[in-house]
Amino acid sequence: MPPRKPATAEEIAHLAAKMRVADPTRDNGAFSSLTTHDAMDWILGLGHIHELDPRMTSTRNPKEQREIATENLRLGLWDVQRFDYLFPNNPYSKTPNLKISRLQSWPNWKKPHPELRTGSIGLMKLDGFKDAARLNSYVWTHFQLTAFTQAQMVAMDPAKGDYGNWTGVKKMMGHASLDLTREGGSQVPFLVYFNKDVLLTMEVLDMKRVSWPEPGPKFLQTLKESQEVKFGTAPNDPLVPMLQTPKVPLVAVRYSYMEGRPKDGSQFFAHLESRMRETLPSGMSDDDVRVEFENHLRAGEEMPEETIRMFAQLLSYNADLVDKEWADEEQSHWNISNEAKKETRVSFFVPCLRPRFDVVEEIETGTPVTSYEKCGNCKKDAKNMCGSCRAVSYCCTDCAKEQWPVHKLDCKMSKKITSDPSSLPKDTLYIPARAYIHWVADFGFANEQELVKFGGPPVDEPPRNQYGPERFICRAQLSQAGKGQWDPHQQRMVWYHQNEGIVFLYDRRRSVLMRVGPQEPAKALVHNVVLPFHAAGYRQFAEVIQKRGIQGQLLFVWVRRVGDCIEVDLKDMPDQRGIRWE
User: Fold this and answer.
1) Which ranges carry the MYND-type domain (predicted)?
2) Would you call 151 exposed, middle or buried from its count of C-beta atoms within 10 A (0-12, 13-18, 19+)?
């Protein structure tokens, strides 16, 4: 079959005669053009957010509503992109100034990986430790682990609607990362997403990377034990690359968003064609270069129009965050013309995760989350907690000693569950505030590391009390009551009575993550954790959930921290109608 004849410059100009370049500062390809409805839909699409700042309903001023919604979205986007990890000296603010040049470039990101051109991981044959270093060089490897939950990776086709658009944006990022990895940046100077006359084109300027926070000591020990089993390495050896802290990619781009066709053709396309010419053999004719350029355009990925626009708006938001000096310098590279500069902006994108739960709480309540840090004795500011129960803070050792005669009665409340359960108050349940396994609400290697270091408690250690002596609400979910289930620890079927099962209990911030039930102590012993069980309190608790809970399973309850335990009030219940968080 003879090679296809390329279009002439005149033909391209004619085809592009009706096209309009989107103004990135004004039209709906820009973050600033979001409506209140758009911003709220974005927030809901981030995940785990089911209600919005009450200030949205307390004011009827449309301008104020849009400002509140947009500011909440800015906070959510800042958090899901984890800018505080990439730029630890740039906390969230309305006018951040991100120094992208400070980040290390991803080594060999321009080196092609032809073994990935099928786009299928299943066809790759990797052998543990031997191939770990090569696997670690793939940008997409850790990107996928941090961008998507396991459930999202199972069903990668985005659903229609606002949530589907958000998932689609993450999918576009994942595909972009895969394309850059398998082909090599030198061969893929730009990425294209299209739908009819909507077009998003990104020229890849650089690939930066940052390491995820290091795991906590106990989780690190678990990883080392895992590598000893899987790879035969000594316990004190460094982690093999496959188990090392993931590297999060930041892709620096020059992008152009278009709706319609530019009157005189896209000057940015002319710039991209000249860039491609630099990567091709010097002996290629102009016609051959044009064919390669057009083939690359046609190889772009078709996505829903709304999803492309959302990605463009995210790029617009990120473009507002970067250091202007860096952006101006990038615009001066590659001899880009002034006409092409007018069609483009310099920006970046990074993996998107679900927001941390304290940020979710701030978005939903309109109040920044602050941990209780008052001395348990004199009520002055304090930061040092009781090292045993981590429930009470003190400003100094004198205050700790002075209060010890009172605090010691509660400090090891879990021991009283076993030694003197009859002394516990009626209509209460006491649960040791510690876990025996790592439990994460989301899936993913990086999510688990984050939970261990920043959120949930380490195994067999009480979590830091964030609420002080005040009571707070926990979500209680009763499961498996009255059902039979195979218990792998006992190697037999266990038939639970109607008032027995497992209750999962956690607060809005996920600072407390617990599971309690008659079978839990035996399961905890398998992990060398002694977990006292308040039997009488639990039976009453299960009955209350079945009588007053939604479908006999779900109930929000008042709790407070008492030493190394959570005290659940089984009489006074919060108004269930006013609580919507999950």
Assistant:
1) 375-411
2) exposed
Three-class SS of residue 126?
coil
Q: Which two tokens stand for residue 59?
A: 């004011």
| Surface-to-core class of residue 532, CB atoms within 10 Å of its CB (0-12 exposed, 13-18 middle, 19+ buried) | buried
What tokens were used for 81?
């992109």
β partners of residue 507: 474
3-state secondary structure of 224: helix
Alpha helix ranges (H) inside 81-196: 83-86, 128-136, 139-147, 150-154, 162-183
Q: Residues of 154-164 as b/e, b for ≥16 C-beta within 10 angstroms?
A: eeeebeeebbb
- Residue 291 host element (H or E): helix 286-298
| Residue boundaries of the structural domains of the chain | 9-33+82-352, 370-411, 413-578
According to DSSP, the residues that pair with 374 across neighbouring strands are 381
Tokens of 269: 């396309």
Specify the pTM.
0.82
Q: Do 381 and 374 form a contact (C-beta atoms < 8 A)?
A: yes
Q: Report how far residue 221's alpha carbon sits from residue 214's, in angstroms, rounded to the nearest whole number.
A: 12
β-pairing verdict for 502-507 and 472-479: antiparallel
Q: Letter for the amino acid at 202?
A: M
Tokens read off for 190: 């730009």
Instruction: Spell out the SS3 assignment of 536-571.
Output: HHHHHHHHHHHHHCECCCEEEEEEEEECCEEEEECC
Paired tokens of 316: 């617009």
Helix 217-231, helix 128-136: angle, nearest 10: 130
CA distances from 436 to 385, 458, 466, 493 (A): 22, 9, 21, 22
